[in-house]
Design brief:
Layout: H1 2-13, E1 20-25, E2 28-34, H2 37-40, H3 47-55, H4 60-63, E3 66-70, H5 76-84, E4 89-92, H6 102-107, E5 111-114, H7 118-130, H8 132-138
Parallel strand pairs: 3-4, 4-5
Antiparallel strand pairs: 1-2, 1-3
Helix pairs in contact: 1-7, 7-8
Amino acid sequence: MQAALDEAREGLREGGIPIGAVLVSGGRILGRGHNRRQQAGSVVLHGEMDALERAGRHPAAVYRGCTMYTTLSPCAMCSGAILLYGIPRVVIGENRTFLGEEDLLRSRGVVVEVVDDPECRRILGGFIGAHPELWDEDIGR
């Protein structure tokens, strides 16, 4: 989770939304990313999507042995990617700020663990207070 938090902080330093994610296999980070929608002018680069993109292509068996660590509960798009690649476990920093598709993930057999990390809440909460319009755009409001 620390690496995902580091990514969230990097996103904030870049002027973006501070949400980070890492894709881990066998204790090794395959890909790390953060929400880069603002920085890249992207419609899809949420933290989880960026981590998957930066991990590069792997055989399906690799994804089936991975854990996605993310500082925020994954939205429908990111949950869809997790399901598409068969990632069996997701560790979520917090879900108070935004409750994503955790029930969908669980219904499809994904192990979902919410650690309710106060630092994850603090970083994103501060950003939302300062930039509510960017937050609303990011989550489709």
